[in-house]
Amino acid sequence: xxxxxxxxDSYFCGRFRVDGPISVLTTTQYVVAEYDERTGDIRWQRVxxxxxxxxxxxxxxxxxxAKNGMKTAPVSTRRKAAVA
Length: 84
Fold this sequence. Notes:
Layout: E1 2-6, E2 11-15, E3 22-26, E4 31-36, E5 41-44, H1 50-63, H2 77-83
Antiparallel strand pairs: 1-2, 2-3, 3-4, 4-5
């Protein structure tokens, strides 16, 4: 595993391939999720407590921001004109 990083006392992450997704593993080596750094999406493969999911996802976004950037939906100007 390449570039192994500790997320918290129960989870760590790393890559199995250089350009592959970032895998989130437990300390007992179970893969619980895969994070795609290009899109910022995470795919959960095992049941994880909701509060731990949030913490892991926030840690991954902070240390591995999405390369495409977050695109926001454009605001419709028609709606503003119709209201006025």
